[in-house]
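tmp note - Serine O-acetyltransferase
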Amino acid sequence: MSTTLNIGILNLMHDKVDTQKRFSHVLTQTDLPVAITYFYPVTHYRGRVVPETVAQISQPLDLSLIPQFDGFIVTGAPLEKLPFTAVTYHQELAQLFDCLRAQQLEQLYVCWGAMAALNHFYGIEKQLLPRKLFGIYPQKILQAASLLQGLQNGFLAPHARYAEMNAKQINANPALALTAVSTTDALFLVENRAAHQHFVFSHLEYGQQALQKEYQRELAAAPQQKATLAKPQHYFKNDAAMTDPVFAWQATQQHFFKNWLHIVMAKKVGGL
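out:
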């Protein structure tokens, strides 16, 4: 049996090239050999031509290929303000979720991907936040978790979202474990270990410049909202000038993705 880990990633982010670079970076910085295959949702491009950049770096999602993977990641997407059923590829995503559950792959759902998966599997409801959660925040560990090995209370993580999942519903579900939150109780990590499901609400794949790029993208899209647009907090050395972003979550990033890959490897070689 090959010891190379085959990881599939459904890339739902708007900045697909940057997102692919980020995940490829964080997944290849460990001591484990990894082969990554990137997918895009077919139904998102129904009736129109798939952009050349998307077609060049990824392939159409094909559920028949899922059994070949050892682990699978569903990325975030800037869709928090939409109902799940209003997303163009909602049904395709639901079919993927069911396939991943049936195959019992190690699953990592990120930010909006985590929201959509929690809603699909467990009916957890999404709630819009009064203001975007945006910046670098300390986290607190509520329960021991393999994904958090090497991290201590107060570890730093980037958050960037307009919505949150209902924590009361999560805590009321015996299948789910809320293992870490921010010091202001924003969700960080939810797990169903028996189902090999991990839901992380932080964009830990983000590199040093990513939050700044996200702010600039939103500003370019709505320059008239500059006065009220959320700015990344606890991120810049010079907040007033919004310069010199600090990569304060780098250690968290390294530990988290290394831990996840080791979980994937343990299942691959041990059949856990």
